Every structure is written in C-alpha cells, then in structure tokens.
Fold this sequence. Notes:
By secondary structure, the chain is mostly helical.
Amino acid sequence: SIISTDHSANFLLAINLEETPRKTIKDPIAFEIPTRRCVYKYPYTYRQIRGMKHGAPCRLVDTLQTKSKKADEDLETFEDAEREIEQLRKRLNEARERASSLYVYGPDQDATEEELDELRWFVEQLLDSAKTFSGSTKARYQASQQLVPSDLAQHLTALELCAEATAQTMEEKQREQKRARTVRSDYLTDLDEVQSWIRQAELKVQDRSIEPIPLKEQLKQVQDELGTIIDKLERLTRNGRTIAENTRDDTEKQLIDSTVHSVTEQLNQVRNWLDERKQVIADTIDAWQRFLTLYEATKTWIEEKRQFLVEPLKLSTLVQARQRLHEYSSLGWRNRGSGVFVPISASSCVLLILAFGVALQIAVKSCKQINKNLSDMGKELESIGQVCSVGDLPEKLLEAEEAKVQVEGQLLERNALLQETSEEWEQCERKMKEVKTWIEKAKQSLESPQNKKKPLRDQHIIREKMLSDVAIQKTKIGISMEKLQVHFRSGIGGDSRIGETVDELLAELDNLHANVKEQTAALEACLAQIDQYQQEIQQLRQQIMQVEQQLRTVLSPTYLSTDKEKALQEQQ
C-alpha cells in the first residue's frame, strides 16, 4: 500500500539496491524500499533479492511495475476519497449554515415547517451519504491492509464530526421551529381567548337586562375567571415578547407590542369596571330591598285600611263602645271580650262615631306617609333602572299606587260620610233630648196646679197648641232618624236600639197626643156647654133688660097712656 504525505506528488518507483539498508528483517513485510517521498513495503528481504538467479530481476521488475500500478490506483483512490470528503464536508457546512440561518419565527409556520422538512430531508441524505462513504472507505482499507491511513482517518473523523454538528444544528433548528410554532400558536390562542373573554366580560359587567341578584352572581363568575385570564395574559405577554425579539418584521413587532399593550389596558379597564360594578350592585341590592320593604309596608297599610273600611260599626253595649273607642283611636281592629253588657246610650254612640271619625282622619293623614313611601319607591326604582333590570318592580309600584288611590278615595269618602253621620247623629241626639225634655215639660204643664187654675178656654188653647207641637216633634224626630238611617244604609251599621229609642219617643208622643186630645175633647165639650149656658144667660139678660126697660117706662110719672086698658096692663 502507498502512504502519501503530498497529494500532488508523482510516484515513480525507483529501486536502488545500493541505497537499501543492509539489514535482514525476519518479517518480509517489514522490509521497506524508500522511494521519492514515499515508502514501498516490499515483500522480499535483501538477501532474497541478492540470491536471486539470472532472470529473477526481470520478474522483480514486473512485480514492481505491477505494484507501482497498484500504488497509482491506490493513490488515485486516496485522492478521490479526500476530494469526496472535502465535498461532503463543504455540503454539510453549507447545510449547517443554511439550517442555522433558517428563519423559523415567521407568521407562516406551515411554509416554514415545509421548508424545514425539505432541509431536513436534504441533511438526512447528506448524513446518509457521509455515513455510507465513511463506512465503505473504512471497510475497504481494513479489508485490504487492516489499517486506515492516518491522514484519511483524520479526514473521516472530521467528516463525522461535521456530520454530527450538522445533525445537532438541524435538531436544534427543529426544536426551535416547534418552539416558535408553539409560541405563535399559544400567542394567537391566548390572544383570542383573552380578547373573547374581555368582550364577554364587558357585556356581563355592563349588562342591564337582568336583576341585581343574578347580576351579582354573574359578576362573581367574572371575578372567579379573572385569575385564569391574568395567567393567560402573562403567558401572552411572554410569548409576544419572544416573537417580537425574534421577528424580522418591524411592523409585526410594533403590532405585537401595541396588541399586548391594548389587551393589558382593556383587562385593567374590565377589572376597574368590575370593582366599581360590584359596589354599585351592592348599593342596588340595598335599594331593591328598601323598595320591597316600602312595598310591604304600603301593602300592610292598604290591607289594614281595607279591613278598617270593610268592618261595619256595630253598637250594642257601652263596654264594647269604650273598647271600640280605644281600638279606633289606635287604629286597631281586633275583636276583644266585651265584659258586662249594659244598654248603650245615644251619647256613647255619638262618642264612638266621633272616635271613629278621629281614627279615620288619622288614617287619612297617614296617607301622607304612604305617599312619601310611594315617592321613595319611585326614586329607588329609578336608581335601580340606571344599573340593571327592574324586573316586576314597576308593576308592584303601579299596583301599590292604584290600591293606595282606591283606599285613599274610600277613606276620604268614609270620612265625609262619618262627619255627616256624626253631625246627623248629634242632631238626632239633641232632638231626642229636646223631645224628651218637651214631653216632660208638657206632662208637668198639664198636671201643674197653675194650669188647672187657668180658664178652660186657655187650657183648651194650650192643649190645641200642644197637639200641634206633638206633630211637630214627631216630624222632627222622624226626619232626623230618616237622615241617620240613610247614613246607616251607606255603610255604617247602626244598632236597632237607636230605632227602638226613637220608637219609644214616638210612642210617648202618641200617648201624650192621645191624652191631650182626650183632654182637648173634654174641654171642647165643656166649652160648648159653657157657650150654650152663656147664650141662654145672654138671652135671659136681654129679656130682663127688656122687662126692666118696660118697667121703668111704665113707672115713670110722666107716662100717659091713651089706652087705659093697655096702661093698666103695663103697670100690672
């Protein structure tokens, strides 16, 4: 085999036996013949060459020529191997430079991955070629002489190191491309999720179509999701910074920076809105509760006043009248024990009606507080409507206003009716007292000695006037009672005792009327008899006067009668 240190040397085998070292080497392979810048390992010893017979040098020359030809072929193979190694190293270095300079952070990752796959396929082909060439070269030399030339071994080692470096660079570039794809994919995914969440969060935070309690739960859900979105924003910021640091597009870098800044500002704005909205919703829930409290108070007032208006006024006992007086004064309408029953008087009835009227006036005045409640409910409803949905609160407010107007109208109507009833009842009571007083005075007048001492005609005149007064008293009581009954029929329940009292008075008046009428008839008979007696007396008086006149005439001394008989008769 040939070991060369100069790739451009021309190998000319020149054997100079005189210059060959005179030594005997037991191993024939160890015998070396120095040549020009090379050593030829000759398989014969020096003594063997010296001891050759005539004709042996020719065979030796042929052998050496064959060996020289073989050496030329080996040298050419060596040089071809060196050139192939150099070419492979050059291509591997170019592939490594291409892989190192490959831009993997571009926006079109599919195109980048396709380009990287092509480069990887090309590098794999180069690596396979280098590996195949190195293996075949080593196998060829090891098969021929059990040893790879040191220079060639160094070149093969350098080729293997270059291939390994290229493969490592390719693997790093593939990992970088996968990382770039992951970074861009995570960036776009996180950006889409964060922006989508921000839009939904803005709609939820600014939502005014639901009531405050569901809105509070919705805000709590947004608050619970905020931590995850902040983590995604931090990852989005890191990935955006990585893309901006590795991108070659200045426009994309500015776009990423502005996008990350904008998303961060939007998220901070949503957080501020969320904090403000939570406080506003808490105040709105309080306003909602105040509205319901005022609504319940108004409904309670309406129900109490309806019960107040529906329950009739029944008068039967003085104890009950006093209890009702206390109940009406405190606007309470609970039925209590009545205790001992005693007949009720007209004054107690009037007192109860007056107490009921006072209670009703208090109820009417309490409408001012209910009006204030309704006004406050309207204000609370307006404040709630500026924040969220008011639900059925407007219907509740309208219902309360309509019920309040209805009850207030009934209270005012009942108040006017009670005032008129109390006035009529007072007037009826006063008239009944007047009638009772008049009856007592009339009876006393009829039975008094002074009246009996009066002339019959005066007594008759008094009784005639008394009969007329009885009719007037009956008419007065009847009209007053009829007016009172009209009010009773209008909604205030009166006890039958009042009618019985009036009937008793009317019965007394009837008895008085009958008694007076009887006395009047007796007096009329007496007066008629007296008149007859007076007429008879008058007639007798007239006759006496006539006789006396005639007597005076006859007894007069100057009386002269022409008719003696007639004169005698007159004197007689």
